Amino acid sequence: MAPPPPTLPPPYHSLPNVLSLPRRHARLPIRRLLAAHALAVVAGHLSLPDPYTHTLLLVAYSRLECARGPYTLLLLLRLSVPPTRRSLPLAVSAASSLRLHLPLALSLHAVAVTRNLLPFAHVANAFVSLYGKNGLPDSARRVFDEMPTPDVISYNALMDGYIKAGRLGLAMKEFHRMPQRDAVSWGTVIAGCAKVGQWEEAVALFDRMRGEGLGPDDVALTAVLSCCAHLGALEKGREVHEYVMQSRSRPNVFLCTGLVDLYAKCGCVEVAQEVFDWCPVRNVFTWNALIVGLAMHGHGTVAVKYFNRMLVEGVRPDGVTFLGVLIGCSHAGLVDMAKRIFSEMEGRYGVSRELKHYGCMADLLGRAGLIEEAMKMVEKMSTKGDAYVWGGILAGCRMHGNVEAAEVAARHLLELNPEDGGVYSVLAGIYADAGRWEDVARVRKLMDQRIGRRNVGCSSITTDQ
């Protein structure tokens, strides 16, 4: 019987089929990638002078979300086929995806210099982006300045690096001197202005962008929605909402969250609920925007309802979620529910209690007249109470006339800020309600000694002679 024909290695041109990604998958499964890598080794494709196989593997590893990806990239770069202007940017991108691998990514800069690859714009852009993302804008600037002809991608990466480092002024300077801009350029500076609280400037840039006939990307839309929410610019927010409805058949989760946050902060809680229910995708930030908005506008019972719905749908709450629910319970007088939720935060949900949560509970217990319970809660805290915690207790003492606890709370508040005139005024009011006029005079005298008498108010008007 004739021997079986020898097993031939897979043809070189078959690797693209092995490494290709189905459209329904965003990432290549690790087992499939490792199998393809082994196939290439056995077939001898990695020793070919053509770097095509290496580039295919680098593309695949750059999409791999695990620790071994960057180190395997380095291994590939050390093989017989040297990195090229196509493969090196992929390696830089993958190695810089996790800050843990930043030294590896930085070492690739030396490879680019040695191989004389930096004159290629997309190679240099990879390093500008690398340094910018990792908080090294000066290094990004040096690479940028050495580029023969920076393109719009170069400027965008540099501006993003400046903004991440808190240097909005330098980012704006580059923006104004760009020879041409795209939607990413505008979105970067609009988001940068929103990040540092320059909300009016961000909205003005957005209007200018629209005036130049350029369609905003999701970053710009999300940023301007946030600005409208902070400014209470409901009409401008509605205008952006209308644009989103016309241009996005399926808005992403950031746009959905921005819309819910806009209407919730502007007091349009019914519209916020409608938008929330319409959102095709939601995350914990979307839920938080609605729950906090409902709580801040006095809809505590509805906020708790959405919190329970959030748990049923399997969304894990965070510290902001609990803060919103506790605020809602405080405004609605849901004392027992707030106690239960507060007690379950750490044990059941694994969310650490922070001072802001204790402050909400102090305010809630104080409003309910449970001053002694609030004092015991503060005594059990692992850290000292802040102004919100003691302020909540003092407010409850004023509502219910608890002089002894008020003195303790006022003493702690004045230790934190001896020049807080409001504390003296509240304490004097509590003494006055109790008929302790000597203490009223003593507190007012102490206030005058510590912070001085307030300047008498005055007004001026100009009249025609």
UniProtKB/TrEMBL annotation:
<dbReference type="GO" id="GO:0003723">
    <property type="term" value="F:RNA binding"/>
</dbReference>
<feature type="repeat" description="PPR">
    <location>
        <begin position="151"/>
        <end position="181"/>
    </location>
</feature>
<dbReference type="GO" id="GO:0009451">
    <property type="term" value="P:RNA modification"/>
</dbReference>
<dbReference type="Pfam" id="PF20431">
    <property type="entry name" value="E_motif"/>
</dbReference>
<dbReference type="InterPro" id="IPR046848">
    <property type="entry name" value="E_motif"/>
</dbReference>
<dbReference type="Pfam" id="PF13041">
    <property type="entry name" value="PPR_2"/>
</dbReference>
<dbReference type="InterPro" id="IPR046960">
    <property type="entry name" value="PPR_At4g14850-like_plant"/>
</dbReference>
<dbReference type="InterPro" id="IPR002885">
    <property type="entry name" value="PPR_rpt"/>
</dbReference>
<protein>
    <recommendedName>
        <fullName>Pentatricopeptide repeat-containing protein</fullName>
    </recommendedName>
</protein>
<dbReference type="InterPro" id="IPR011990">
    <property type="entry name" value="TPR-like_helical_dom_sf"/>
</dbReference>
<feature type="repeat" description="PPR">
    <location>
        <begin position="283"/>
        <end position="317"/>
    </location>
</feature>
<feature type="repeat" description="PPR">
    <location>
        <begin position="182"/>
        <end position="216"/>
    </location>
</feature>
<keyword id="KW-0677">Repeat</keyword>
<dbReference type="Pfam" id="PF01535">
    <property type="entry name" value="PPR"/>
</dbReference>
<keyword id="KW-0809">Transit peptide</keyword>
